[in-house]
Amino acid sequence: MWLPPFLIPMSQVAPVSVGAADVSDGLFAAVAGPTVIGWVVTYVLAIRQATVDRRVGIPAYLVAVDFAWEFSLTFVLEQTPTQRQINFLWFLFDAVLLYQALRLGPRDYPGLSPRVFRWTFVGVLVWASLLVVVGANEFHDRDGMYTGMIIQVPLSAAFLLMLKRRGSSAGQSMHIAVAKLVGSLFAGATAVVVYPSHHLLQVLVPTYVALDITYAVMLRRAMRREGRPLWTLRASAAVPGTLTGSGVAGAGTGPALGVGARSDDAAA
């Protein structure tokens, strides 16, 4: 059977087998430093916003994936000493996010009982942990670059889906969106600088950066529709889908829905 000639020949050397570039300490710090800071700020702000709004600040099931990545590459699989220290720092914040996700996450999935939600959450956590360990070992990914960039794509997409599902900016803020964009952007810059021959990373990075920018734009529009100040850190109890007063989700009284809240904002 005749077929036209292929357009792109297979690489002679698998790019994944090519080691890291010789990057100066100054350049590495310039791109890796903002990555660490951006994600720490994202985690701190997400924890705070969840405490204020009683809605998770990071999509619940992706918290399980993030926790699996940081736990597995800190305590289970061999990693570079520097990366293990960074992962451990993120792991500490992720432990708080994990608690919030288990407690508040069911509100985003009214079709699931809290029991079913928590079992599926644990299932995602276990599956993601196995995938991270096996995947990082398969790629010989000693600094979590491949697995980290792959996870970034569904994480960024999940923020867009969370905004659409809630129908409001509850549990979210422009500060979180911008901090996440900065952390993710510099994480991508680190990947490209350290591994310039790893072309898969060069596809993944623009993909999730575009998703992050789209999320920031859509969140800004949602907040303006709600009349919510874009850059204030004050409590946002008037935002549709948040709790007012001292009510706590799951405490027996149910959430107090704001005007315009969608029915899927009801407590599970």
Summarize the structure.
The protein is mainly alpha-helical and 268 residues long.
Task: Describe the fold and architecture.
The chain has 268 residues and is mostly helical. Helices cover 62% and strands 0% of the residues. It is built from 7 helices and no strands. The longest helix has 29 residues, at 25-53. The chain starts with 24 loop residues before the first helix and ends in a 42-residue tail after the last helix.
Task: Describe the secondary-structure layout.
Elements: H1 25-53, H2 60-76, H3 81-104, H4 114-138, H5 145-166, H6 174-194, H7 199-226
Helix pairs in contact: 1-3, 1-6, 2-3, 2-4, 2-5, 5-7, 6-7
Instruction: Note poorly predicted spans.
Output: 244-268
Largest sheet: none
The N- to C-terminal Cα distance equals 58 Å
- What is the helical fraction, as a range of percent? 55-70%
Rounded to an integer in angstroms, the radius of gyration calculated over CA atoms is: 20 Å
Q: Give the overall form.
A: globular
β-strand percent reads under 5%
- Please provide the ordered H/E string of secondary-structure elements: HHHHHHH
* Count of DSSP-assigned helices: 7
Give the key terms.
single chain; 268 residues; mainly alpha; 7 helices; 0% strand
